[in-house]
Write the structure tokens for this entry.
Amino acid sequence: MDFIKVTSSYEEHIALIELNRPKELNALNLQLMQELADSLETLNQDENVRVIILTGNEKAFAAGADIKQMAEKSAIDMLRIDQLTLWNRIRNNGKPLIAAVSGFALGGGCELAMICDMIIASETAKFGQPEIRIGVMPGGGGTQRLTRAVGKARAMEMVLTGKFISADEALSYGLVNRVVPVEMYLYEAVSLAKDIASMSPIAARLAREAVNRSFETHLDEGLQFERKNYYLTYASGDQKEGMRAFLEKRKPDFKGE
């Protein structure tokens, strides 16, 4: 794999995926997206991996799509390539996914960060959907996820002007979980991943599905989905271990079973 680096045992139960096109500020070309989708599917089959961190480098998480691959394409070319189907494969990742963002997260880079479950940002992070500046619009979920994250008015301004927002603005808008010094952003993401990885992976997966479902359904349907997943946790050994450990006043030893 040329455009990403994958460490499946970066920390106990934690995998790290690093975007690796530094000269291009990690621009998202077709090959990188294919490698990313393939790697996530492989990590989803690895029972030792409970949480995945996705990052770039200090200068850029991902500065957008690779315009060189797209500039002369026709609508029919884009339909035939159908690169955006790769986004569905990434979205279908079944494990908690944390974006560790420093520097630029623009266009497709912002969309990729938003497809993750949580975002840890460095103080230098900048988020934006500047596609309108080159005559197009977001196509990887930007108009939908950004609106859900920051509200209609702010999303409309960002999408229609191409304006970037700072890490602190992203935090105040509710787009990111926290902002830390640049030298700490990956450490902070790992710390969050460790907290999640210490929990029952079965319960974490079911809870994650339920939270995500809240953005896709009406309240009554979401409540029914949550209830079903809640009852399903009682089929796991982790539920028995967790409740026994609570009663015995000790730390639980979750096995993912």
About this structure: The beta strands are 4-11, 14-19, 51-55, 60-62, 97-101, 104-106, 118-122, 126-128, 164-166, 178-180. The chain has a mean pLDDT of 92. DSSP finds eleven helices and ten strands in the chain.
